[in-house]
Design brief:
InterPro entries: DUF3322, JetD_C. The chain is α/β, with parallel strands linked by helices. It has three domains: 99 residues, no CATH class; 64 residues; 169 residues, Dna Topoisomerase Vi A Subunit, Chain: A, domain 2, CATH 3.40.1360. It has a six-stranded mixed sheet with strand order 5-4-7-6-8-9. A three-stranded antiparallel sheet has the order 1-3-2. Helix 1 crosses helix 3 and helix 7 packs across helix 9. The chain starts with a helix and ends with a helix.
Length: 378
């Protein structure tokens, strides 16, 4: 076993030692495992003996305690060899790891934290690795936690909580703040929630879907001539636009591949965020189309969309599209999941299975422009 492997054992024991300090437990001796295999060569014998003896405890020096035993070797003759190696005292562990000063800083930090909240020793003992790295920010963390323990902040965004720290501080230290809040006030803060925004029921930045009017008259009538705009799911739920079609595209680039079309809105569903588009009257009351990449994720999104809108139609996601663009089919970077997709129609499922068999994909951007125009306007 190498010196670093011995140090790794000591580092692990050090973390337990720090926890014991917090809980007021006496130092427990540490027995080091392994590393005493018989040497094979004379050079190896001398190197290992030197390694063991360099850190051995003496009357004037701290270190590990070695119990020696006699070893009779045909190759090396009679030798002394370690029977056991242990660390008997706190000072020995700190000497071996060069942690004397660090431990004093740790003890000071623990004193500061327990004076702030006397009930914290158990939490500190479970989170000893956080104490020293955060030593410079504990004063600010205490202020934030004190404020959050007694104030309702659900009307604020994460970076607008009125605490005396920089705007990113709470976000940067969210994990520790969550842990402290749940420990100090479990009746208020759920143990099942690990996300700070959810734990505090904060307001969240609304997601913006990019939309493009394919009919400039609609842009004039409904959005003050804005042809391309960003719109939240909440706003989509209340708009009263009298139009005929909505085309959802998986990728934003594809919005601009679509030709002009009367009474039609194109909306980028951003792939996996399609779930944010459920319960939208505009989508339920118009002819709804979906155009995505022909790959595992694209068909999965189409299947998902039909859970909300069973009458939604796909466009350019079938076997004829694949046949025309055979040369553009590539290999997707991950294997197909091959999960059941009951929402797909036979022509869509046939295309999906063909691609799955070769782990292929046909991206929206690879389709011929004239083909796109023909499919959308037919």
């Amino acid at each position: 076993m190498t010196k670093q492997q011995f140090i790794s054992q000591l580092e692990k024991a050090y973390a337990s030692y720090l926890a014991d300090i917090v809980l007021g437990k006496a130092f427990a001796s540490i027995v080091l495992r392994g590393g005493k295999n018989d040497p094979v060569t004379t050079i190896e014998l001398h190197e290992q003996m030197k390694f063991f003896q360099q850190s051995e405890k003496t009357e004037t020096k701290s270190g590990w305690t070695i119990e020696w035993e006699e070893w009779n070797s045909k190759k090396f003759g009679r030798q002394q060899w370690p029977k056991s190696i242990s660390v008997q005292e706190e000072s020995d562990l700190l000497f071996l790891l060069k942690k004397e000063k660090e431990t004093e800083v740790f003890k000071s930090a623990v004193q500061m934290l327990t004076e702030w909240k006397p009930e914290l020793p158990q939490w500190i003992s479970q989170n000893v690795r956080d104490i020293l790295p955060l030593k410079e920010v504990w004063p600010s963390l205490k202020k934030v936690v004190d404020y959050l323990l007694v104030n309702d902040v659900k009307e604020f965004y994460l970076r607008s909580i009125p605490v005396p720290v920089h705007t990113k501080f709470v976000e940067d230290h969210g994990r520790v703040i969550v842990s402290l809040l749940k420990y100090l006030k479990p009746e208020k803060f759920s143990s099942q929630i690990s996300d700070l925004e959810s734990l505090l029921d904060l307001r969240r930045k609304s997601f913006l879907f990019t939309a493009r009017w394919l009919d400039r008259d609609c842009a004039k009538t409904f959005t003050n001539n804005m042809v391309v705009l960003g719109i939240t799911p909440e706003d989509l739920q209340v708009v009263n636009w009298k139009i005929d079609k909505v085309i959802l595209t998986e990728n934003e680039t594809s919005l601009y591949q679509l030709p002009e079309l009367k009474n039609t809105l194109a909306l980028c569903s951003n792939g996996k965020t399609v779930s944010l588009l459920k319960n939208i009257p505009l989508l339920a009351n118009t002819r709804l189309f979906y155009w995505g990449d022909m790959d595992d994720e694209g068909f999965l999104m189409l299947n998902h969309l039909r859970q909300f809108y069973p009458l939604a139609q796909s466009v350019m996601m079938d076997q004829p599209t694949l046949d025309l663009h055979e040369a553009e089919i590539t290999i997707q970077p991950v294997k197909y999941k091959n999960i059941d997709m009951p929402g797909l129609k036979p022509s869509e499922y046939a295309a999906y299975k063909m691609l799955a068999e070769r782990n292929g994909r046909l991206e929206q951007e690879q389709l011929q422009h004239l083909y796109i125009s023909k499919c959308v306007t037919d």
